[in-house]
Amino acid sequence: MAKVRSIANLNGKLGDVVFFKRNGRTIVRTKRADMSKRLKEDACYEGHRNRYEYLKVVNAFATAIYRMGKEYAQKTDYKSHNKLYSRISQVLLSHDIEDLPLQEIRKHVKGLVLNFKETLPPISAGLHDDDIILGCDTAIEREARIKILIGTLPKVRKYKDKFKADVNMQAVDIIEFTVYPEDHLQNIKVPIALQEDQVVVVITNYFDGEYEQEWVRVV
Hints:
The chain is α+β, with helices and mostly antiparallel strands. The protein has 2 domains: 1-31, no CATH class; 35-218, no CATH class. It is 26% helix and 35% strand. The chain has helices at 35-41, 46-72, 79-92, 102-109; strands at residues 2-4, 12-14, 17-22, 25-30, 124-128, 131-135, 144-152, 156-159, 162-165, 171-179, 187-191, 198-207, 212-218. The strands form 4 sheets. Strands 1-4-3-2 form a 4-stranded antiparallel sheet, with no helix packed on it. β2 (12-14) and β3 (17-22) form a beta hairpin. The longest helix has 27 residues, at 46-72. It is elongated and about 90 Å long.
């Protein structure tokens, strides 16, 4: 920023140069080039543009998983979207966007809680090969309702050298189970033949005698 001493009363814009008064002095500033245009076209920002393409896909995957849980659960924690985003970005930013390791995404988001329930649900749920294993290791006094959500991640499409992905799952399959008190100490095997581009969220609802509790977790 330059200061000008002159008998002329300079105030206004001349080309890319702006003159204005401050504390009785004339200040001169040069107008900067449009930053948004530089980000889009300048060669020195190519790395920034490439990273932005990755982050759009990261956000699409994180949003799709979060929205799947939100649609079928009573209440989800919006902060869990940030956790999904953070874990998925750890996978995608180190790989070619046209050859994404989708199975690695599933491993990185495994165990994330999508609502406010940090305690363990009365019915455990785990992924073993192509099966979901539901386990009732603790005695329950009432029935527990289970929803297994199997979501297919959005397809990544390339259009005019830019990558795009929807923010909703391509498809969601739902398997529902009811576990009764007499199922104590039994395991229930649910075959699902999981594909590499699918993610599973399990919602457990259980009435403990006072109010209904809900657990929403990625498995």
